[in-house]
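My hope is that you will study the record closing this message with an eye to the fold:
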Amino acid sequence: MQIYLDYSATTPVRSEAIAAMQEVLTQQWGNPSSLHAWGQRSTVVVERARVQVAQLINAASEEIVFTSGGTEANNLAVLGVARQFTAPQHVIISSVEHSAIAEPVRWLEQWGWQVTRLPVDRWGRVNPLELQAALQPNTVLVSIIYGQSEVGTLQPIQSLGSIARAHGAVFHTDAVQVAGRLPLDVQHLPVDLLSLSSHKLYGPQGAGALYVRSGVQLEPMLGGGGQEGKLRSGTQAVPTIAGFGAAAERAAEELPTELPRLIRLRDRLFDLLADRSDLEPTGDRLQRLPHHVSFCVRFADGDALSGKTLVRQMNLAGIGISAGSACHSGKLSPSPVLLAMGYSDRAAKAGIRLSLGRETVEADIDWTAMVLKQVLERLTPQPALSSV
């Protein structure tokens, strides 16, 4: 039995996206910048996908900038704002950002920028009052992740964005884990920039987008032909963009039924594992991504019960899960996210994540809970018998 429960890392490409990509690869392979018929056919493909992605978040199509993925979208948001200033300014992020935000912000810090990293509570939530207190006259950007990929916590984006924008700072959110899983409406969300990724919502890897609210100014990171409204030079990857658009359209259509289904399965998995005292749920149970389940092993014994060990043992049983964020699962080091939430170094090496998707059914949940309990029983050190 094979059960994939790592949908937060990537999702299988859905048939509609594959069909859209195949059509481009075989019939509409022109360069969208070319003026002839071949190029114009590809232009139509790109612009159709732009509309499809825009409709997923209720944006105008001209506010969508296609990128190579969520990482590039995040980098463009941070560096695109920063490159407008000749002198270092102040930027605010949370202490639980994805590395695609944390790393470019670290570069800014090396270049003389002032950086404030807002603390989070035990559940990974930012207090809006902390943001209010951190704002300075030279704060030009606030970037807070919407749905945390490792522990599933949703941030109070409505409050945080309102505070940032009232101050005059540009507000960005990394919504890579949220798009296609929860409703997103940029007409009502106080966000200026918002990052998306195709392969998190059943589109192909290698495509993403940055929503740029009309009137918000950015400087490009790439010099070249000036594609994507001069914000992202380079010939557009028409096949992957077409797949992204098709996946976004289907995600919007399925959201009303898929959202409650995922919440039900998520809560069932939490409930089935509630009797394990060695599994501590991480993140906020209520303000949470609908497909996301995560734990920290309470009695982690070094490498014996690290998150990485559990991933390997579950894989041997045919179940794919993750040790925290997939971007960090290849190395055994404490999770920066769990550390920021107050976990010890030892506990921060013992996080696991199970994320559900379109193909997950109740039987998968029940089987996974049973197998995980068996793995924990086998790996948990047993107390020595006393001699008589």
User: Anything to note?
Assistant: The CA atoms of residues 308 and 331 lie 8 Å apart. Confidence is low (pLDDT under 50) at residues 383-388. The chain has two domains: 3-9+255-378, 15-251. The first strand starts at residue 3 and ends at 4.
